[in-house]
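Case study.
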Amino acid sequence: MSSTKRPMSPYMLGPYYRFQITSALSILNRLTGVFMSVVTAPLLLCWLIALASGEQAYAGLSTWLGSGLGKLVILASVFSFSFHLFGGIRHLIWDAGWMMDMPQVRLSGWLAIIGSVVLTLVVMGAGL
Amino acid sequence: MQNPLARVRGAGASGGGTQHWRSQRYSALVLLLLTTWMLWLGVSLAGADYATASTAMSSPTNAGMAILLAGTVFYHMHLGLQVVIEDYVHIVSVEFLLLILVRFFCLVAFLISAIAALKLVLGA
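After joint prediction, the assembly is written out as follows.
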C-alpha cells in the first residue's frame, strides 16, 4: 500500500450516514459468514472427528454442547446459518436481476430478518 | 462470456475476471441443497448418544452427503474469507499470510472431514 494520505469515503456504518437496512444487512451477512467460518464449521468438524474417534471423545463433546456456553454457541450458529441462508438467497435473486428497486430491496431485507428469526426458532424448537 | 476488448487488454489489474464471483454463487446454490440435509440430520441427531449418531453416519448416503457438504462448505468458506481479508487487511504481508493460512486450513479441514466420514462408513 502507498503511504500517501488520500481522501477516503466515510465508512457505511457509524455516525456518517443515517441507519439503512441495506448496509446493516450487508455487513451482517459478512459477520455471520465469518462467525460460521471461525466457530460453526470448526465445531461441526470437531463433532465429526469426535464421532470417528470413539465413544469417549463423543461423550466429552456432547457434555460440552449441553453446557451453557455450548448452548449459546449452538444458538448463535443456528442464527448465523439462518441469516446467511436468507441473505444469500437475497443476493442470488439480485444476481438474477430481480427485485433491485429500493422498496423491494427494503422489503426483502425485512423478510430476510423475519425469516431467519423464524427458522432459528423452528430449529431450536425442534430440539437442536 | 468474454468481451473481445478483455482478450486484447488481459483481465486488468485484478488479474482475474468473474471466475471468483461465479464460483461463490455456484457453491452457494449447491449449499442450499446440502445444508438442508445437514439441518435435517442435525435436528434428528440432537442430543443423540454415540450408538445412534455413529449408526446414522455409517450409512453410505449420509457419509457421501457429509463429504460433499464438507467439500462445498470449505470451498465456499475459502472464497468468502478471501474476499473479507482482501477488503479489510491492508498490510500486504499480513494479508498474504492470512490468505495462505485460510487456504491451508480449508484444505486440511476438508481432508480431515472426508477421512472421518470414511472411517465411520467403513468401520475401520
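Observations recorded in class. The mean pLDDT of chain A is 93. Residues 15 and 109 of chain A are 22 Å apart (CA to CA). We will return to this complex in the next lecture.
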